Amino acid sequence: MRKLRRFLDFIASRLFFVTLLCALFILVFYLAMNTANIWILVDEGLDARAGAVLMQTGTEGLSKYFREEFLVQDPILTVGTGDQSPYRDYTIKSYRHQVQLRSVWCWPWESTATADIEESVPYINGTLKKEIRSQLVSENEEILNPPAWETRRYRVTLVRNAGRWKISNLQQVER
Q1: So what's the pLDDT on residue 98?
Q2: pTM of the model
Q3: Which of 1, 42, 51, 112 has the smallest count of CB within 10 Å of its CB?
């Protein structure tokens, strides 16, 4: 009887550790999956946002990445796609957008996540529009080239709704 009890204790302890190990693997898998989804969403979403400002394409496709409430109140989009845009007088041919992910955290059972990122556009290839260039008499190189994009650090808040992540807030941490 004692041997049977020791054998059952051995089986139960091994089963407990195997179950604990499987739970840990599942937790790590979901953390990695959420981190990858968040990274791709933030990278593509901020690139689309920069493209809407630089190329003056409008904000129609941004609702795939951002919540509508954010799009209405985003100061970069409001200024960048309006008449006050510093890029409205330029024809932007290409640009290089970079997002560096500093940190991201999201438990698998939560519907919100936060990420710290740094956004920059180190290269903008564009020229002054012909109608504007003809109005300018001086050949100032600073006016002929598009203004530089300011590098910023953001704390991004994301919300999961129906299994899909969307950016709900960009809080500027520093310039």
Answers
A1: 94
A2: 0.83
A3: 1
